[in-house]
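Quick one, tokens below:
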């Protein structure tokens, strides 16, 4: 049985008061955090084993991605035509 702290009890009580859409959002965030943690463990193990020399972290961008507008037909159509 897991040890439950006062903080965890408070969080669990608070979760019980959330609406369905809020629960879904919380679930997605918890899953994301767990995935990041698992990736860190794997990367650290690869580094310690010598299979990876350096762990590169993606640089966070403060500006959101904005696609570049192009004129004419969609680029995907042009690529498909050129491959034929």
């Amino acid at each position: 049985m897991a040890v439950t702290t006062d903080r965890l009890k408070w969080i669990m009580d608070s979760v019980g008061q959330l609406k369905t859409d809020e629960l879904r959002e919380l679930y997605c965030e918890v899953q994301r955090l767990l995935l990041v943690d698992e990736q860190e463990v794997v990367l650290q193990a690869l580094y310690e084993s010598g299979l990876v020399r350096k762990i590169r972290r993606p640089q966070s961008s403060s500006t959101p991605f904005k696609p570049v507008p192009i004129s004419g037909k969609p680029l995907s159509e042009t690529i498909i035509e050129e491959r034929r």
